[in-house]
Design a protein that fits this description.
This protein has 197 residues and is mainly alpha-helical. 54% of the residues lie in helices and 0% in strands.
């Protein structure tokens, strides 16, 4: 938000690089990678942020190189498999408003367009009131409303949301681009899982 409000300073870059470094150190590889994808989408679709995000991404990757370089070196030595994603928009809504029954949850039980994982990987329960609150204040007032100061985040966040859908993400994973590293985890038949994590 500070970046969108015009803060293109070195302290913002340093604080963001430190935040991403801490996320990486505590083992949240996927969150780290998805935040970099969000920043990259912001750099492309919000041009005034391009140079600030570019220097932030470069500094972050340099600071985290001790974990990124081994993973890059091992990248071609294991077979990636698609794990899963939400099968439909309704399943996203369902994961927000219902507490899943792990044994009988139709959307996450073998119908994930990929290998099944535990239901806890995709549930985002906030309840009906919480989901309505997120939609109204987060999407309508935060992104769609004409006077929203963060309306420029609509496309970058929309891209991230679309990538949560299994049918779309499965196509992205099949592409020979670095974004496919997002699907890497120790659940795959990886020879070097410790390098990734």
């Amino acid at each position: 938000f500070r970046l969108l409000e015009g803060d293109h300073s070195w302290p913002w870059t340093a604080l963001m690089a430190i935040l991403l470094f801490i996320i990486w150190l505590q083992g949240s590889y996927h969150q780290f990678a998805w935040l970099l994808v969000l920043l990259a989408a912001m750099a492309v679709f919000i041009p005034r942020t391009f140079w600030t995000i570019l220097k932030t991404g470069l500094i972050t990757c340099l600071v985290c190189a001790f974990r990124i370089l081994p993973a890059i070196l091992a990248y071609g030595s294991y077979k990636q498999t698609f794990i899963n994603g939400y099968p439909s928009l309704f399943s996203v809504w369902d994961a927000l408003v219902n507490v899943p029954d792990p044994l009988h949850y139709t959307y996450f039980n073998g119908n994930m367009l990929g290998d099944a994982v535990g239901v806890w990987e995709l549930t985002s329960f906030v309840g009906l009131l919480g989901a309505v609150f997120l939609i109204y204040f987060g999407i309508y007032r935060g992104l769609l409303h004409r006077q929203s100061p963060y309306r420029s985040l609509l496309i970058p966040l929309g891209i991230i949301f679309l990538l949560t859908l299994g049918s779309i993400f499965k196509l992205v994973i099949a592409l020979p681009i670095p974004l496919s590293l997002l699907n890497t985890c120790c659940c795959t038949n990886c020879r070097y899982p410790c390098l990734i994590w």
